[in-house]
UniProtKB/TrEMBL annotation:
Keywords: Membrane, Transmembrane, Transmembrane helix
Organism, scientific name: Billgrantia zhangzhouensis
Name of protein: Na+/H+ antiporter subunit G
Transmembrane residue ranges: 6-30, 42-61, 73-91
NCBIfam families recorded: CPA3_mnhG_phaG, PRK12674.1-5
Region annotated Disordered, chain positions: 110-144
Biased composition (Basic residues): 124-144
Length: 144
């Protein structure tokens, strides 16, 4: 076996594995019941899938063009750093807004500390009022 046959096998494996991970991550987003379970699909499965595809792309273009391609490696690194952070921030926001969750899974509200959940529901910010909608002023007329 030559080096290129082995490299094609590794690239093929990474592409297939990336497709399977991305598909299961997307399918998990559709099948899971509540917001907190749906976070796992894109933050875990899809991140691994895209990471595998990007690493396969890096290997392929490095071998075919005979120069090192690190753009895909940088994109993969950035994706692996940002996806868990955004998933954590979304989960904390869901806890603070007291979103409904399925009680049949492990982990329930009594396990959380008060500072994790928040004392009360987060209120929405007040809407900005237009100047002509105040009680004393009327909307300016353009045509009389």
């Amino acid at each position: 076996m030559t080096f290129f046959v082995i490299a094609e096998g590794v690239i093929s494996f990474l592409l297939v594995a990336g497709g399977v991970f991305a598909f299961t991550g997307s399918l998990g987003m559709l099948q899971f019941k509540d917001f907190f379970m749906r976070l796992h699909g894109p933050t875990k499965g899809t991140t691994l899938g895209i990471g595998c595809v990007l690493i396969a792309s890096m290997i392929y273009f490095t071998l075919t063009q005979r120069e090192l391609h690190v753009q895909e490696l940088l994109i993969t690194l950035f994706l692996f750093i940002t996806a868990p952070v955004t998933g954590h921030m979304l989960a904390k926001t869901g806890l603070h807004m007291h979103l409904r969750f399925t009680t049949g899974t492990r982990g329930s509200v009594p396990e959380f500390r008060d500072e994790d959940v928040g004392q009360s529901r987060v209120t929405r910010p007040a809407r900005a009022r237009h100047p002509w909608k105040s009680r004393k002023q009327k909307r300016p007329r353009l045509f009389r």
